[in-house]
Amino acid sequence: MKGRDVMGDELLWKVSEGDSVNLKKYDPAYVASSVKREEADQQLAALGQELGELQELLAAAQHHSILMVLQGMDTSGKDGTISHVFSQVNPQGCTVNSFKVPTPEEAAHDFLWRVHKVAPAKGMLGIFNRSHYEDVLVVRVHNLTSEDVWSRRYKDINHFERLLTENNTIVLKFFLHISQDEQTARLRARTEEKDKAWKISVSDFAERKYWDDYQKAYADALSKCSTKEAPWYIVPANHKWYRNLAIAQTLVETMRSYKDEWKQELEARGREELAALQQLRDRKEVTDL
Ligand code: AMP
Ligand code: MG
After folding, report:
1. Which GO terms fall under molecular function for this chain's record (predicted)?
2. What proportion of the chain, given as a percentage, has pLDDT over 90?
């Protein structure tokens, strides 16, 4: 199982293009040795603040968009991640889309139609709670289309994501990796604790018996659709605090690498605007400023 020795300083696992993923080799309860539980909340708060600042630059520069895809088994913490990692981001610069069972209108189109429509515009940070990957996950596990149809979709997905990245969308995909025991514990808590009962979805309980099929479908999706431009990350997600920290850190690091570019973009725009203003002054169309 991949552990400290393999991870180095990395908090999570990036799937390289062409890797053949075996999820059994990744420990869902992993915690990097550099991370201390008692410091994690403070670190997450600091990352949250930096994320807010970077998002402001992203929005002002209007040059890139960011698409963050969250996938994972039921109870893996997709909703929790969104509420904890993005608490300090300006809602104006963010879109969150959840993908459910397709509506009749969605089902009457190709599987990417509903997804492409809500891909983040320039300057926006888009979060997908589930995504186009459901069409090679639940659809495959439950034979909702023939293998002939779903097996072509990996290629379609790669083409689609390439279209996005070629148009300046920074794509990050996170698989929240929990163990079956952890899922059982989380589902049990929902049945035993009154204040968690509202989270019960009967389908989650029914889906449990397909665990192995889902793991296989996930492994295939991660293997076939992790590219240099749109990588998959496997997030050890048994510990909620660690999951939040690992995702926040990865997102912030990625955005940091564009910071100078975004600043230059803004400075160039500032210069253009000042030059345009000077022309108005020269033509005496503005005289008091
Ligand atoms: P939740 O995320 O708990 O609100 O549940 C949404 C449900 O919609 C999950 O059971 C997904 O598997 C299901 N779903 C999402 N996309 C699709 C799809 N393309 N086809 C069938 N079911 C889907
Ligand atoms: Mg659910």
Report:
1. polyphosphate kinase activity
2. 96
